[in-house]
Design a protein that fits this description.
The protein is mainly β and 278 residues long. It has one domain. It is built from 3 helices and 15 strands.
Length: 278
Amino acid sequence: MRSLIVATGLSFAVLAPAWAQAAKAPVRLVPHRAVYDLSLLQSGGSKGVGSARGRIAMEFGGDACDGYTLKYRQVTVLESSEGGSRTLDTQTATYESGDGLSMRFKSSSTVQGLVRDGIDGDAQLRPDGSLDVRFNQPRNDSFAATGQPVFPTEHMKRLIEMARNGERTYSARVYDGSDDGKKVYETLSVIGSRIEPGAGGDMEEPARQEALARNPRWPVTISYFEEGNADREPAYTISFELYENGIARSLKINYGEFALKGDLKSLEVQSATSACQR
């Protein structure tokens, strides 16, 4: 019996360095195209949204060597007894450097077909952690912020690292260039228990493919607070199941007055475009 215990102990000792190395492996986000069908999850009161439908289409690409790209479009049709029908269409394109220190962004939106001013700018993180943003559209302008904010892809990578390490919460200041481009959100992420690869049978058909079935995932809720209002209600909240490779399913977006759910309609996982080793 003692020899068996010793042998088992030695085998674990031999495997430990490999396990430790695997545990420290960098987060690798996979290029993919995903489409989510939107519907109304809940509405606040008789004067709120009566029904909603829409779609999110996104294409994520790149890696830590070449940087990350994202093309995102969300079209939402809201129906209410007082306001009638409203169609909101938001489109965003971003590029983030692999080191997480710079971001280019461009966005536009329409409400009922009327175009709002688009945003086009470049954001840089300085060595002291401050943010410097230069706008090309709608006019030459600038914006600055302190407090070591991070960009969205870097935020997602750090969130996955926290989940891997068993952390339950993660706070960060996030700059995504949204709205007028002059806003940094204070975020609080709550991370649920790890869901093992392949667990959970009641999933959309696209979520059953091998690219997701072999990856663990975590339920995550991210609350976005306007700067200085972290002790109040969030501006909005996003919940989803986050896979280790960066793909998400089971979306819920809570805007306060109403909430939407997003079901994964289609998913195309693409091959890496380079042999990045970071």
